[in-house]
Amino acid sequence: MNICLQITTDMNSLMKDIEREIEAETIKHLSAVLERGVELVRNKITNEKAYQDHTGNLRSSTGFIIVKDGKVVHQSFKESPVGTDRQTGLKNGLKAALDVMRESTGWGVVLVSGMEYASWVQSRGYDVLKGAYLGLDKALRQAFNEIGTIE
What we know:
This protein has helices at residues 2-42, 57-60, 86-101, 118-123, 130-133, 136-147; strands at 62-68, 71-77, 107-113. By secondary structure, it is of the alpha+beta class. The protein has a three-stranded antiparallel beta sheet with strand order 2-1-3, with helices on both faces. Helix 1 runs antiparallel to helix 6 (136-147). The mean pLDDT is 83.
């Protein structure tokens, strides 16, 4: 009886190790894909389609969170390199992402520009967040295919 119990315990430990490895790889791949997308819109400062972000709030509020079972397992919000009040954007971006998350189960991602006027700027033809999610579904599929090759 003790031998069977020991084998079960070892298997449970092994399964937990595998689950942690899969979770780590999932976070790594998801964050890499999302970071590339978000950096595209964060770095549009000199582009002709770039909006003028005098305060730095809008760019600072652009970022993402990765959630598993209602808990944030990764987040990415960065202070804009330009502007007079970038901290407000950081705070509003994270708050907006957390508000969307609410009570969730399983895996999820929230991609936001958290200032209340973000959609207004986007509707004027400027790339606030659109460039971050165009082609995102294809990039995520590719990232999840890579997860299948954990070594």
